[in-house]
UniProtKB/TrEMBL annotation:
Lineage, opening ranks: Bacteria, Pseudomonadati, Pseudomonadota, Alphaproteobacteria, Rhodospirillales
Protein species of origin: Azospirillum lipoferum
Record domain EAL: where: 24-277
Protein's UniProt name: EAL domain-containing protein
């Protein structure tokens, strides 16, 4: 009886594994198709000066306008693309598209906005990414300091090439931010020597403010540390005025979150900025 059980379980596992592998291959194929025919799009979420309400920058966030499933988020794209390596061409498309958009807004007469772009661990290749970005900046004429690369703490820890790549990006004049800061286990001591301009406090630390007083300790400490190390800091996932007020009382200047704006299509960002600045941009 035990033997039968084992065999059945084995049969079950193989079936399950085959099903998963097939599903993954189908999704990968569908993603390659979608990428090729131009179904990937970028939405942009404003980053706000919490004192004045001014828009200081935007973060580019990938979406997939799928023919049958509708508008899909990064979860439908990034994990599959990272597994297959498609993340490298997709990531380069994201950088190209984001830079082109920043340039288009400038041409339309909007004030210069910082453009933040998420970059995966597999893209941090010192023989590829810096040269790619140098060419991109040369071709588009976008000032390097207007482009901010977001990498996560886990990329910083697990990618041997990461530091070499970062140093080259800094040499080009780009800005670098650590995304989802506080969720990995970065060695605090190494922060002071890393070529990082900015910490993005993960939204999990913002969520419980101010219901739970203990939860305020972590964002408060991150903000103080960032300032002591001469780094700037931004809070993600700001949803309420109470959260904004607490963050401001800690000296955090910038925030990003649903309180201000959801990620939106490029045209909606331009409309929002035009309204704020009383401009009538020429978006042709
Ligand atoms: P992230 O870089 O931490 O981006 C912030 C995420 O938080 C976005 O989710 C945004 O929509 C969401 N968010 C912003 N404000 C709020 C808020 O007030 N409340 C809540 N609950 N959520 C908020 P999204 O667009 O689903 O992106 C998820 C993740 O996917 C991103 O997290 C980033 O890690 C990854 N991602 C997105 N685009 C790209 C890309 O082009 N390349 C790579 N490698 N990763 C990307
Ligand atoms: Mg990000
Ligand atoms: Mg983040
Ligand atoms: Mg996050």
């Amino acid at each position: 009886v035990a033997k039968d059980d084992g065999r059945n379980r084995f049969a079950f596992y193989t079936k399950e594994m085959t099903r998963k592998a097939t599903l993954y291959m189908e999704r990968d194929r569908d993603l390659r198709r979608g990428f090729d025919v131009g179904e990937l799009v970028l939405h942009y979420q404003p980053q706000i000066d919490m004192a004045s309400g001014a828009v200081l920058g935007v973060e580019a966030l990938i979406r997939w306008q799928h023919p049958t499933a509708g508008l899909l988020g990064p979860d439908a794209v990034i994990p599959i693309a990272e597994k297959s390596g498609l993340i490298v061409p997709i990531g380069e498309w994201v950088l190209r598209e984001a830079c082109a958009q920043a340039c288009a807004w400038r041409r339309a007469g909007l004030p210069p906005l910082r453009m933040a772009v998420n970059v995966s661990a597999r893209q941090m290749n010192p023989d590829r990414l810096p040269q790619f970005l140098k060419n991109l900046l040369d071709e588009t004429g976008l000032p390097a300091e207007q482009l901010e690369i977001e990498i996560t703490e886990s990329t910083l820890q697990n990618e041997d090439n990461c530091l070499a790549t970062l140093l080259q990006l800094k040499r080009l004049g780009l800005m670098v931010a650590i995304d989802d800061f506080g969720t990995g286990y970065s060695c605090m001591g190494s922060l002071k020597s890393l070529p990082i301009d900015r910490l993005k406090i993960d939204r999990s630390f913002i969520r419980d403010i101010p219901e739970d007083r203990d939860s305020e300790a972590i964002p408060e400490a991150i903000i103080a540390m960032a300032h002591r190390l001469n780094r700037t800091v931004i809070a993600e996932g700001v949803e309420t005025l109470a959260q904004q007020d607490f963050l401001r009382s800690c000296g955090c200047r910038e925030g990003q979150g649903y309180l201000y704006a959801r990620p939106m299509a490029a045209a909606a960002v331009a409309a929002l900025l035009a309204e704020r600045f009383g401009l009538a941009p020429d978006l042709s």
